[in-house]
Amino acid sequence: xxxxxxxxxxxxxxxxxxxxxxxxxxxxxxxxxxxxxxxxxxxxxxxxxxxxxxxxxxxxxxxxxxxxxxxxxxxxxxxxxxxxxxxxxxxxxxxxxxxxxxxxxxxxxxxxxxxxxxxxxxxxxxxxxxxxxxxxxxxxxxxxxxxxxxxxxxxxxxxxxxxxxxxxxxxxxxxxxxxxxxxxxxxxxxxxxxxxxxxxxxxxxxxxxxxxxxxxxxxxxxxxxxxxxxxxxxxxxxxxxxxxxxxxxxxxxxxxxxxxxxxxxxxxxxxxxxxxxxxxxxxxxxxxxxxxxxxxxxxxxxxxxxxxxxxxx
Length: 313
Description:
CATH class of the largest domain: Alpha Beta
CATH architecture of the largest domain: Alpha-Beta Barrel
CATH topology of the largest domain: TIM Barrel
Number of helices: 11
Number of domains: 2
Helix content: 25-40%
Structural class: alpha/beta
CATH superfamily of the largest domain: Aldolase class I
Strand order of the largest sheet: 6-11-10-9-8-7
Radius of gyration: 24 Å
Strand content: 15-25%
Distance between the termini: 37 Å
Shape: elongated
Order of helices and strands: HHEEHEEEHEHEHHEHEHEHEHE
């Protein structure tokens, strides 16, 4: 099964991603006249030898990150060509050829590790995300929810790419960073109470913040007790994050939200302590969203190898 093609549209190759790729290349081949290069391939491979090699999945998983390969190869040679065979977002079996690189073998082998590092890491994120998505779908009482969301727990510098990989796996992105959404936690509520110099009720604080934001900017409110739920709903956030609540508590929250807000707004999001083993219990609650930090910060790589193709010359 492939993810929605619209959802897996890759991010633009902007200056940040190009710089990230450049750093990866530089740390592998070095820089400066005394350090740069790949003496192993330069000593062993005829510089005039051209051939082709394939990226091959060594285990089943979901592909992500192959759109970066042409940009990576350009650092090594303008004559290296990437031909994709499987799109990002597609589930593949062991032994599937993801695509073929052709051109000068010396430069191809120098580029191999950087290519595999990006593709195997991002495909690992997509594969773990798909496991969560499939598990949630198979146990949910209502089609379409819960959606599996990522968090800001990403590898520094890789956030845009990892969140893209989450979409490849069928997940949904939480806010990208601090700038594109507001999430009120207990420390923020305490600080706002002090700032207003009055014991404002939770509902008043949430309404004040919501009314201060642009209409398009989403607002989360984190609560850690069901006692806070009625006041939280009355405040009008877009999403209420149920922090570290048990599946039973999440189920009670869903029933209470549906009673107080039959239109299903605000959305409810469960977060904290949720993993593949207990995900079915949370999926059965009818909660709208489940955010999982592990799909980015703890995803193992997808084992992807590089095999030289038979010489047909």
